[in-house]
């Protein structure tokens, strides 16, 4: 990431992951569930400021190899706009909801000894796991609006039918108040090892580099409920798949663009073209055009001069001040269409996703905002404002990101309050791997193993695709 919402309130969306619409396909799929909370105009101002400052904290450092401050996350008071899903840790396995973030690469959860900021969330009891190993290495994570700290450990981690033993993660005993909101207990990074603060191989990368997946890909499809007043607190939110792409969720071909960097860190693509209201915007070239494709961020942040150029194409738009500094205001009755290209096809962003929040008097805040990142971080951060409009695929080898048009089936989920909300289940493990190795101990590939398993392991993954938030 529903209550009935007036136009002046933004909904915080959570998504939960369950079974695939086409479970007969190779690989395993997780459905997404969306949770909504109302937001007042006053709360939005606080959120807007924290969101922008937090994203600059996340990408503002000098990350030549690793993030010196670890995985950076912001929590907006009363609004959780990151993707979170269920994975299981330990022997016996116990499931926890964790934020999903393609913009970071570490796994951490709140521990049972947590003395600060964890009272309302499930915590990990290390003594209950027979496979737990305490590494004893201090670990800290800095966020735009807080921090978490603890120690590194190793244990068996499971998700969606896959199991990785000896996975390095952090057990945190101090978390800034309101950084975690029930039921979220931590964070799972889905970026590359190069930016892992622990130096550990990320869970997904161990699976993708071995024989665990039929295909070395993970993919996302998200729903939209922003303009649905009848939406309930929990709604079906889409799908996250590991090891395959679900052909029922997209149409046409998936267009892959190779990552332009020699060292894989963030998931990066160059922005080669921007069009607003039918008018082309001049974009920088080379590294200045690089954009992180970040599921943990809902909005789109970019260089100040190019953000200004975008809003210059929208009549009567003006820069925000105070809490909305860095954002732009424009008349709510203006339908704004923005398209992006990354060197191939042109992809449109719905006007519903561009319109972030009405702040009164028929004035709205746009979802593109000015952002300053660090020297080695990409200039653009492209989040769910864009990703809700495409089927997105993150491919391990060759390192690339693919987009495809959403199918009619995917589009039919948008605003559909009659769809059943998926629930979390824990079943059998289809494929196993060990962190630091590339071999599997059961089955050659998970797709084949899944076909032989009558009860696949399916964890409910919840995402918060918010029209207003992100890590």
Automatic annotation (TrEMBL):
Short name of one Pfam family: Asp
Extent of the signal sequence: 1-19
Keywords: Aspartyl protease, Disulfide bond, Hydrolase, Protease, Signal
Residues annotated as catalytic: 101, 294
Record-level Gene Ontology MF annotations: aspartic-type endopeptidase activity
InterPro entries: Aspartic_peptidase_A1, Aspartic_peptidase_AS, Pepsin-like_dom, PEPTIDASE_A1, Peptidase_aspartic_dom_sf
PROSITE patterns linked: ASP_PROTEASE, PEPTIDASE_A1
Disulfide bond positions: 114-118
GO BP terms, alphabetized: proteolysis
Domain called Peptidase A1: residue spans: 83-404
CDD domains named among the record's database cross-references: pepsin_like
Family affiliation: Belongs to the peptidase A1 family.
Protein's name in the database: Acid protease
Lineage, opening ranks: Eukaryota, Fungi, Dikarya, Basidiomycota, Agaricomycotina
């Amino acid at each position: 990431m529903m209550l009935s919402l007036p136009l002046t309130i933004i909904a915080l969306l959570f998504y939960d992951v369950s079974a695939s619409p086409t479970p007969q396909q190779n690989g395993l799929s997780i459905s997404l569930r969306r949770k909504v909370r109302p937001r007042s105009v006053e709360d939005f101002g606080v959120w807007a400021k924290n969101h922008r400052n937090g994203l600059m904290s996340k990408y503002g450092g000098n990350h030549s190899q690793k993030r010196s401050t670890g995985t950076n996350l912001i929590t907006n008071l009363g609004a959780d706009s990151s993707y979170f899903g269920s994975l299981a840790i330990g022997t016996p396995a116990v499931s926890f909801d964790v934020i999903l973030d393609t913009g970071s690469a570490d796994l951490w959860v709140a521990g049972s000894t947590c003395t600060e900021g964890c009272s309302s969330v499930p915590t990990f009891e290390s003594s209950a796991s027979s496979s737990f190993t305490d590494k004893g290495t201090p670990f800290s994570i800095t966020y735009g609006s807080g921090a978490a700290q603890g120690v590194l450990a190793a244990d068996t981690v499971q998700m969606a039918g896959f199991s990785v033993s000896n996975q390095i993660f952090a057990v945190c005993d101090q978390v800034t108040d309101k950084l975690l909101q029930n039921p979220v207990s931590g964070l799972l990074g889905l970026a590359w090892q190069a930016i892992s603060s622990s130096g550990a191989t990320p869970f997904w990368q161990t699976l993708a580099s071995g024989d665990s997946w039929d295909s070395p890909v993970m993919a996302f499809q998200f729903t939209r409920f922003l303009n649905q007043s009848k939406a309930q607190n929990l709604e079906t939110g889409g799908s996250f798949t590991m090891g395959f792409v679900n052909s029922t969720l997209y149409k046409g071909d998936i267009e892959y663009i190779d990552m332009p960097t020699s060292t894989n860190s963030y998931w990066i693509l160059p922005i080669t073209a921007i069009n607003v209201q039918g008018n082309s915007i001049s974009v920088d070239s080379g590294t200045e055009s690089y954009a992180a494709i970040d599921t943990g961020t809902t909005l789109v942040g970019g260089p100040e001069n190019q953000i200004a150029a975008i809003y210059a194409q929208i009549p009567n738009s003006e820069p925000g001040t105070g809490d909305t500094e860095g954002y732009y205001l424009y008349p709510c009755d203006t339908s704004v269409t923005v398209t992006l290209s990354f060197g191939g096809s042109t992809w449109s962003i719905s006007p519903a996703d561009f319109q972030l929040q009405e702040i009164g008097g028929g004035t709205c805040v746009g979802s593109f905002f000015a952002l300053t990142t660090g020297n080695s971080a990409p200039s653009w951060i492209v989040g769910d404002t864009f990703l809700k409009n495409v089927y997105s695929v993150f491919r391990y080898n060759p390192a690339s990101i693919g987009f495809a048009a959403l199918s009619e089936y995917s589009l039919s989920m948008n605003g559909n309050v009659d769809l059943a909300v998926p629930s979390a289940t824990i079943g059998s493990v289809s494929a196993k791997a060990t962190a630091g190795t590339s071999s599997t101990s059961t089955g050659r590939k998970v797709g084949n193993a899944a076909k032989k398993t009558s009860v696949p392991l399916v964890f409910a993954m919840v995402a918060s695709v918010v029209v207003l938030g992100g890590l």
